[in-house]
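Researcher: Sequence of DUF2332 domain-containing protein follows. Predict its structure.
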Amino acid sequence: MSLERILAHFREQAAFCTSYGSPFTGELIGAMADDIESGGPTTALVADWPTNPRADALSLRLAGALHAAVLTGRDAALAALYQGHTAASSMSEVWPVARAFLDRERVWVAEFIRSAPQTNETRRSIALLSGFLTFAQNWHGPVDTLEIGASAGLNLNWDSFAYRTRDWSWGDDSPVVIDTDWNGPPPPTETRINVRNRAACDLNPLDIRDEGQRLRLKSYIWPDQPDRLARFEGAVALALANDVRVDRADAAAWIADRLARRARDAATIVYHSIFLQYPPREARAAIVDAIRRAGVEATPEAPLAWVRLEPEGVTDGVDTPRMVADIHVWPGGERRILAYTDGHVRAVYAV
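Model: Prediction complete. C-alpha cells:
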C-alpha cells in the first residue's frame, strides 16, 4: 500500500473525528499524518500495511493503541496528559510523548494494531431498534436473536437499554440510556418484543470478564467523549449481570450452522452493525448467501428477519459516508430501508 494512500486515509479520518465531536482524536491523528509525511516513527508502523488502510481503520487502530497505553498504565506520562478527558491538554504537549511511545514500544503497538477496532458502539442499537420493532409489529411470538460481528457482546442486551429521544422513548429505566437526534417518523414504540434466546459470534471476541480485554475494548472509544464512555460502562455492567457470552467463530460458518438448526416454533432475527465492511469479499458473500438461503425456507410459523446497520457503500455500492438501517423479512424477503445515519448515530433520518 502506498504511503500516499495511507496518508490520505489519516487526513480524512482526522477530519471525520473532529466533525464527530472528538477534536482531540482529530488532532492526534492529524499529528500522526504529519509524522508519516516527515518519515517519523509512525511511518515504520504503517508503511508496510498490506491492505486498504481506510477499510481497516488503520488510524483508529493506532489511536486505540495510545489510549490502551493510557488505560492500562503502560505509559504514565501519557496517562497524565489524557486525564480529565484531555480537556486541559494541548496536542503540543501530548504528541511528543505519544510519538516517543510509538517509537519506544514499536513491537507492542504493531501487535496491537493487527486486530480490527472493536467499539461495541451502543448508540447504534437505536438504529437497529427500528428494525426490531418494525418486525415485532407483525410477529407477537417468541424471538431468537443471532448477532454476527458482536465483539464483546455489549449490544446483545439491546432490549434492556432505555431509548430516549426528543419525540419518543422505548424501554424501562436502564444503566444504558441511548439518545440521538431523531428526525422523521418514530419506530412503532407501542410494540413489545419477546426475546427468548440470544447468541452471538465474533472472529476475535473480547471477554469483558478479563480486565485487560475490557480495557482494550474501552480504548477504541475516543477519550474526550465522556457520554460514550458512560454508555460503555453501563453496557459492561449489564452484560456482566446477564453473563453475556460470544462464540469465537467465523461469521459465515457460524451463521450457516445456526440458521440450519434454528427453532421452528419462533422467529429468528439475524443482526449486525458496522461489520460487513471488515470480512473479505468472499466471506461477506458467504454470509449473505447463508442468510438468503435460510430465508427461502422460512415459514409464517418461523419467520426470519435480517436487520442491519451498515455503510451504504457495502449495502448499495454507493460511495457515501452514510450508514443504512434496513430490514429483510422472510417469507418474502422484501427489503425495507428504515433510516440513514452516521457511524456513531449522532442523528437519525428515518424514512
